[in-house]
């Protein structure tokens, strides 16, 4: 049985998200469904240097605490590739000469409309070693060998779902996962 939306109303909105409450009819009958909608798609960057190391940012998230993640952020209405290039530079001080679109994914599909674009950045160059976004809580930029990144995921050192998915895209593209 398909879902039917009988009515919808916005209950909260800001620059980044809109939260709405939908009256629905679904497989289990009638009910209310809360939906978070991102105002703009997000971008995620797996930046790999010539030594096969992944660029990660270490930061403090208000909702989950300390986190180790790939550079990422909102597209702010820009083309996703332009946004990915901006986020990599802003968060890490790194630029890339080669960009490859790895894919598209959705975050929290049970409760959100949150499209995301994943890119692989290569041929890296440090453009601004002092460029990190303290206002976002970024405390450090770390370069970790790809094989060790997988260990960090397995050991719970990386818990951000989008980072894990972005690294999976990169692993699939590189032939590490078949």
Q: How large is the share of residues in beta strands?
A: over 45%
Q: Helix share of residues?
A: 10-25%
Derived structural class: alpha+beta
Number of domains: 2
Largest sheet: 4 strands, mixed
Radius of gyration from the alpha-carbon trace, in angstroms: 18 Å
Short description:
With 178 residues, this protein is an alpha+beta fold. Helices cover 21% and strands 49% of the residues. Strands 1-2-3-9 form a 4-stranded mixed sheet, with no helix packed on it.
Any key phrases for this structure?
178 residues, alpha+beta, Nucleoside Triphosphate Pyrophosphohydrolase, 2 domains, four-stranded mixed sheet, 3 helices, 11 strands
Structure description:
The chain is of the alpha+beta class and about 180 residues long. It has 2 domains: about 5-40; about 40-175, Nucleoside Triphosphate Pyrophosphohydrolase (Alpha-Beta Complex), CATH 3.90.79.10. Helices cover about 20% and strands about 50% of the residues. The chain has 3 helices and 11 strands. The protein has helices at about 80-90, 145-155, 160-175; strands spanning about 5-15, 15-25, 30-40, 40-45, 55-60, 65-70, 70-75, 95-105, 110-115, 115-125, 140-145. The strands form 3 sheets. A 4-stranded mixed sheet has the order 1-2-3-9, with no helix packed on it. Strands 7-4-10-8 form a 4-stranded mixed sheet, with helices on both faces. Strand 5 and strand 6 form a beta hairpin. The longest helix has 14 residues, at about 160-175.
